[in-house]
């Protein structure tokens, strides 16, 4: 494992040496802006919100073929969280390490969204969207009721928000570190 980490860090240094931090800096600033906004407003949704919602709804359709109501409902959240994870894996393989950091921020926006939806499981105050329109059922009310955890909705949401915070700010820190490595590598090339 230590050998893999050392090789990866060498690959990151090599990758940083061939890339400029300046086109990526505005995106890092946006990532930080989104992170701060999520801290101050649990209902905040970034520019990624409509994409996340579309992926969530597609997950319901994708998992509906499994003939299980629970898996169909869970499929929205699973696909919503899987999309940035799979994207990060693909960018890691390319490699594009800054894109991996961005995918972490994208995952965090989804986790914050899931936490907001989860915390609403008993209140049922959020406006819902369903594929094909009409009244939709509340995913987290259904799932938490099915497993006997409905009265724990806000506690579970707090844990997911904590995870979202760690993922968001870890990704922002990684993105900042990558930009610093790019800047240092470009300065070393000029000397």
Distance between the termini: 35 Å
Order of helices and strands: HHHHHHH
Structural class determined from secondary elements: mainly alpha
Q: Beta-strand percentage?
A: under 5%
Oligomeric state of shown chains: single chain
- What's the count of strands? 0
Q: Average pLDDT value? A: 93
Broad shape: elongated
**Which residues form runs of ≥5 with pLDDT under 50?**
none
Total domain count: 1
Rg calculated over all Cα atoms: 19 Å
Please give the largest β-sheet. Answer: none
Number of helices: 7
Please give the share of residues in helix. over 70%
Outline the structure in words.
With 191 residues, this protein is mostly helical. It has one domain. The protein is built from seven helices and no strands. Helix 1 packs across helix 7, helix 4 packs across helix 6 and helix 5 packs antiparallel against helix 7.
Highlighted features:
mainly alpha; elongated; 191 residues; single chain
Question: What would a concise description of this structure say?
Answer:
The protein has helices at residues 2-17, 25-40, 49-63, 69-93, 97-119, 139-146, 153-190. With 191 residues, the chain is mostly helical.
Blueprint of the fold:
Layout: H1 2-17, H2 25-40, H3 49-63, H4 69-93, H5 97-119, H6 139-146, H7 153-190
Helix pairs in contact: 1-7, 2-5, 2-7, 3-4, 4-5, 4-6, 5-7
């Amino acid at each position: 494992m230590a050998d893999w980490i050392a090789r990866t860090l060498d690959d990151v240094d090599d990758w940083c040496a061939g890339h400029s931090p300046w086109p990526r800096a505005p995106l890092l600033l946006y990532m930080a802006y989104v992170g701060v906004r999520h801290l101050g407003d649990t209902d905040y949704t970034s520019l990624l919100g409509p994409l996340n919602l579309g992926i969530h709804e597609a997950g319901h359709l994708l998992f509906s073929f499994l003939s299980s109501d629970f898996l169909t409902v869970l499929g929205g959240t699973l696909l919503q969280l899987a999309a940035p994870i799979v994207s990060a894996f693909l960018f890691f393989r390319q490699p594009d390490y800054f894109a991996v950091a961005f995918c972490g921020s994208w995952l965090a926006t989804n986790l914050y969204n899931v936490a907001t939806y989860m915390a609403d499981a008993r209140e049922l105050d959020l406006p819902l969207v369903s594929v094909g329109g009409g009244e939709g059922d509340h995913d987290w009310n259904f799932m938490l009721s099915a497993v006997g955890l409905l009265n724990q909705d806000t506690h579970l949401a707090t844990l997911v928000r904590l995870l979202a915070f760690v993922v968001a700010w870890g990704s922002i820190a990684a993105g900042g570190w990558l930009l610093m490595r790019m800047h240092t590598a470009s300065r070393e090339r000029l000397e």
